[in-house]
Amino acid sequence: VCWWRADHKSHMTGSQRKVSSMAKRKGRRPSDNKSEAIRKYKTEYPEAKPREIAAVLAKRGHKVSPQYVSTILSNERRKHGISNGGMAILGSSQFSVDDMYLAKQLITKTGSVKAAKQAIDCFSRLLN
User: Fold this and answer.
1) Cα(54)–Cα(48) distance, rounded to whole angstroms?
2) Where would you tag: which of 5, 20, 55, 118 has the fewest CB atoms within 10 A of its CB?
């Protein structure tokens, strides 16, 4: 073997070549989605902290760090344009995102949250 071919593997036969030790992706089931598990748990328990969520999911077979949980929840809030406290309100509320958007429109039309509440109170009295 020439010195320039010592590291070159093209001269090797199929049985002499090493098998790649590169990581192979496992087949995943839909239930293996860690991010979805985090979102679902946060919806069910809006007051849960990332450390608690990570511990519970670890017992369920999802190995996640509290930092990863925090990142997923932060991305979720950013995606929906919700401030820090809004995620808990949205997750535990009976109102949908569309309902919240309509409330925002009412506040914009009336000029303030206080004026919107007064309008709702007046409307409520009309219904009674």
Assistant:
1) 10
2) 20
CA dist., res. 120 & res. 24, Å (int): 58
What are 29's two structure tokens?
């089931």
The model's pTM is 0.42
Query: Given this model, what pLDDT does residue 98 score?
Result: 84
pLDDT at 15: 56
Neighbours of 50 (CB within 10 A): 20
Cβ–Cβ < 8 Å for 74, 87: no
Q: Which own/partner contact pairs does 115-120 have at CB distance under 8 Å and 24+ positions apart?
A: none
In which region does residue 123 sit, left (phi positive, over 0), alpha (psi from -120 to 50) or beta (all else)?
Answer: alpha
Could you count the other beta carbons within 10 Å of the beta carbon of residue 45? Answer: 15
